[in-house]
Amino acid sequence: MIGHLKGEVLFSDGVETIIQTHMGIGYQVYLSEILTEGAEASVYISHVIKEAGEELYGFKNLREKKLFEILISVKGVGPKSAFVLLNSLGVDQIVTAIQFDNKKALTAAPGIGPKAAAQILLDLSSKIDKIKMYSPNYQMEMIVAKTPGTSQVDFSSTPMSNDNQIFNDALMACKELGFKEDEVMNLATKIMQETQISKSEQLVHLVLKEM
């Protein structure tokens, strides 16, 4: 399964993008953003396999990818509907709608009727915490909660973007090796709390060492 692509953008029109990896293979990906042709792109991928063929859906971060994959697990919600919903409302608005059982907010997206919205709320109300795990604020809250003597963190002034990328990349790598998400997440959070991590490969090495 393809989980991530990095390479040169050969074509991009806001609907589909072709990314050529350093191995010379060009992958056609559904992507809502227009990327600069000739530039290098790094895109998270959800690889959907159907009877009629295979499709690649692209996302700018792991949080979007994970929400998409949870959405397509809902009965009656296909990849294209989930992709439109995600790109229309965004992760935060969808998560909020599920938390507060707001069916009307979900039906604001094209192709999502009342029946599909109700099924999303029913199926995902108990799963939404999985999406929160990929939020920078959530990860910092986990670190703060486990650190003696800490109380509050001003997230607006906390530079989390690089740490978040390292955390997500390492989590993805460990999952692809067959390790359980919850086990890896708790261990990776503990390691990042106690050790200065500069790249995802370092975090993966330390996680595997303690497994």
Descriptive notes:
This protein is 47% helix and 18% strand. By secondary structure, it is an alpha+beta fold. The protein has three domains: 4-59, Nucleic acid-binding proteins (OB fold (Dihydrolipoamide Acetyltransferase, E2P), Beta Barrel), CATH 2.40.50.140; 63-128, 5' to 3' exonuclease, C-terminal subdomain (DNA polymerase, domain 1), CATH 1.10.150; 133-210, no CATH class. Strands 3-2-1-4-5 form a five-stranded antiparallel sheet. A hairpin with a 3-residue loop joins β1 and β2 (16-21). The longest helix has 16 residues, at 161-176. It is globular, with a radius of gyration of 18 Å. The two termini are 24 Å apart. 27% of the residues are buried.
Primary descriptors:
10 helices; alpha+beta; OB fold (Dihydrolipoamide Acetyltransferase, E2P); 5 strands; globular; 3 domains; DNA polymerase, domain 1; 211 residues; 18% strand
Oligomer: single chain
N-end to C-end Cα span: 24 Å
Q: Which overall shape is indicated by the principal axes computed on the Cα atoms?
A: globular
Q: Which sequence of strands runs across the widest sheet?
A: 3-2-1-4-5
Give the biggest beta sheet.
5 strands, antiparallel
pLDDT < 50 runs, ≥5 residues = 137-147, 149-161
The number of domains is: 3
Q: Tell me what portion of residues adopts beta-strand conformation.
A: 15-25%
Number of distinct helices: 10
Helix-strand blueprint:
Blueprint: E1 4-12, E2 16-21, E3 26-30, E4 40-50, E5 53-59, H1 62-71, H2 79-89, H3 91-99, H4 103-106, H5 114-124, H6 129-132, H7 136-145, H8 161-176, H9 181-194, H10 200-210
Antiparallel strand pairs: 1-2, 1-4, 2-3, 4-5
Helix pairs in contact: 1-2, 2-3, 8-9, 8-10, 9-10
